[in-house]
Design a protein that fits this description.
Blueprint: H1 5-15, E1 22-26, E2 29-33, H2 35-51, E3 59-63, H3 68-78, E4 83-86, H4 93-103, E5 107-110, H5 113-122, E6 131-134, E7 144-146, H6 147-160, H7 164-170, E8 177-182, E9 192-196, H8 197-210, E10 218-221, H9 228-240, E11 243-246, H10 253-260, E12 264-267, H11 269-285, H12 288-309, H13 316-335, E13 343-346, H14 353-361, E14 366-371, E15 378-381, E16 394-395, E17 400-403, E18 408-412, E19 419-420, H15 424-429, E20 431-432, E21 435-444, E22 450-455, E23 460-461, E24 467-468, H16 470-477, E25 483-489, E26 496-502, H17 504-513, H18 521-526, H19 528-541, E27 551-556, H20 576-582, H21 584-590
Parallel strand pairs: 1-11, 3-4, 3-5, 5-6, 6-7, 10-11, 10-12, 12-13, 13-14, 26-27
Antiparallel strand pairs: 1-2, 8-9, 9-19, 14-15, 15-16, 17-18, 18-21, 20-21, 21-22, 23-24, 25-26
Length: about 600
């Protein structure tokens, strides 16, 4: 029985010898890395760290994009009893400094010139750091070591002391800390979440019993490894011997999908929203006959999907129509994912029910789950056996969930964090009688499926005392082809309004077709005809909302929210408090006299 990540690593390198354990793009071509080479690099890098004085309990910072070296460095750290502290590559130097100093890190590894520039700018302020390592072929500054140099140090130590790596890996205990992951946080200062080997392993093994991963699967890794979900599923891939293909970047995912041809990919809703928007754009731009065939196909796919969800066979005329729809419609979309996808996983934020059903109709299964950094992360997940759109599935084995009187989701189990690093007060605040308070509002239906309504702190209470969950409304709006992003406003206000980020490509087409002249995107966004058009689109998209939930006024923005401007977290969640503060005057103008609900 595997109880630590180090045991998992040792088991995998023996159990899954394969020539293509990892795939990485080099010189324009995906190149394989064998299990043997991966295992050797982990051993040598771990011993190289040991040669630098890295000891059990020491903190190891990884500031890098997804690549094989990320996973090698992570396993090298945890197999020696070290504590990996990942940092998003999108963070600014001051944020990087905070995490390095708060975690008391001894070693920092960075990927490239851009990331080194951040560290170089704050180097003098990093009091606990003893060594800097780069993945660049040459050191960018004095006193910086290269990845290759660490491997050479490890190789020499391995030759002098055979079995030293296995000895250290075997001494790691389940209760030892494996990682401190700083929450990106939609509000406040980031907190370091302490996760042990037992936390991760419990989550990996529980998920593996309800969702099949195997050595026959190839996966595409692109969600940042600094995100707890991608990190945990990467551990799961290693545990089950999957082949891990690394996307070059988030921008190249569409191309890399057709090159790697994965069976599995984990993502956040924003990516599925973009794929959906792209498909719908192509459909709208096609001929009337092609549009008719497409929507006929989706209708057939949904009918067949309803049968499958009810665990009934698809037969007769429906089976024939479904086969035809697959040939004429579905196969073209599936081909753009590489043609081999068994399932996608969505997490990090709620996925629109309409989008999940759309993908399912096309034959692309999106298994939506729920969790937090503090829960290692999976709390619940949809599976092939238990699938309900609009829900985040049933709690995974060994994890308990209940709903507090105020609607907050509470959970407990072996996956729950040990606490926040050096923050005993904040730790105490999120626990109640052994239950972890998630901060999310939700409900459990009669079949045991969990649904998320919204973040507790994001709930809107109007001046009339009505409670409104903004996220489901925003998810509906984002399915509209003219809307990229939306933030629903209305807390302590007379009525609900929204900040709208339009799809400027589509909006410019609309403006041209309707003779709307403008000098800039800001000019276009503010044009009364555009505002009226988008308001009408919103009204059409939300006919089922209660009268007090309906969006009465909108402000159209001239750009999307950005991580660099602190308006979004690295995991693509809106920082509502910052957005509302930045656009305070614009929001207030929607509620001035004369603009009544």
């Amino acid at each position: 029985m595997i109880t630590t990540l180090s045991q998992m690593f040792l088991n995998t390198v023996k159990a899954y010898p394969k020539p293509d354990f990892m795939l990485v793009k080099k010189g324009g071509v995906y190149t394989p890395i064998s299990t043997e080479e991966f295992g050797q690099q982990v051993r040598r890098f771990a011993l190289g760290l040991k040669d630098l004085g890295f000891a059990k309990g020491d903190k190891f910072i990884i500031l890098s994009e997804n690549r094989p070296e990320w996973t090698v460095a992570d396993f090298a750290s945890v197999c020696q009893g070290g504590v990996t502290v990942p940092i998003y590559t999108t963070l600014m130097p001051e944020q990087v400094k905070y995490i390095i100093n708060d975690s008391d890190a001894q070693i920092v590894i960075v990927s490239n010139e851009e990331q080194w520039a951040k560290v170089a700018a704050i180097r003098a302020d990093l009091g606990t750091v003893k060594h800097f390592i780069t993945l660049l072929p040459k050191a960018p500054a004095a006193g910086v070591l290269t990845f290759g140099e660490i491997l050479e140090r490890g190789k020499a130590l391995e030759a002098a002391h055979p079995g030293l790596f296995e000895e250290a890996a075997g001494s790691v205990a389940p209760e030892d800390v494996a990682s401190i992951i700083y929450t990106s946080g939609t509000t406040g200062v980031p907190k370091g979440v302490i996760l042990t080997h037992a936390n991760f392993v419990s989550n990996i093994t529980a998920v593996s019993t309800i969702i099949e991963f195997s050595e026959k699967d190839t996966v595409l890794s692109f969600l940042p490894l600094s995100h707890v979900l991608e990190r945990m599923v990467t551990f799961t891939y290693v545990y089950k011997g999957c082949t891990i293909g690394y996307a070059e970047s988030i921008e190249t995912v569409a191309q890399n999908l057709t090159e790697v041809r994965p069976h599995i990919m984990v993502s956040v809703p924003r990516v599925f929203e973009k794929i959906y928007a792209k498909v719908m754009d192509n459909v709208r731009a096609s001929s009337g006959l092609k549009r008719k065939i497409f929507f006929w196909g989706v209708k057939v796919g949904k009918a067949a999907g309803a049968k499958r969800l009810a665990k009934k066979p698809v037969k007769g005329g429906l089976k024939f129509r479904h086969g035809l729809a697959h040939k004429l419609v579905f196969s073209k979309v599936i081909a753009k994912t590489g043609g081999r996808v068994r399932f996608f996983v969505s997490g990090g934020a709620p996925l629109s029910k309409d989008i999940a059903e759309f993908f399912y109709a096309l034959g692309l299964v999106v298994l939506e789950g729920y969790g937090l950094t503090e829960t290692s992360p999976v709390v619940s997940a949809n599976t092939f056996d238990n699938l309900k759109f609009g829900s985040v599935g049933k709690p995974i084995p060994g994890v308990e969930v209940k709903i507090a009187p105020d609607g907050e989701i509470l959970t407990r189990g072996p996956n729950i964090m040990q606490g926040y690093y050096k923050k005993p007060v904040e730790t105490a605040e999120v626990f109640e009688d052994g239950w972890f308070k998630t901060g999310d509002i939700g409900k459990i239906d009669e079949e045991g499926f969990l649904s998320i309504t919204d973040r507790k702190k994001d709930l809107i209470v109007t001046a009339g005392g009505k409670n409104i969950a903004p996220q489901p409304i925003e998810n509906v709006l984002k399915t509209n082809p003219y809307i990229v992003n939306a933030v629903v406003i209305g807390d302590r206000r007379r009525f609900v309004s929204a900040l709208i980020v339009p799809n400027f490509e589509k909006l410019e087409e609309y403006a041209a077709a309707n003779n709307i002249s403008y000098a800039s995107r800001a000019d276009l966004a503010a044009h009364p005809a555009v505002v009226s058009f988008l308001q009408a689109e919103i009204d059409k998209a939300t006919p089922n909302l209660a009268s007090y939930e309906r969006i009465k006024k909108i402000a159209v923005l001239d750009r999307d929210f950005e991580i660099a401007r602190d308006e979004m977290t690295p995991s693509m969640k809106i920082r509502r408090n910052i957005v509302q503060a930045k656009y305070g005057e614009l929001i207030d103008s929607l509620y001035k006299d004369g603009n009544s609900g």
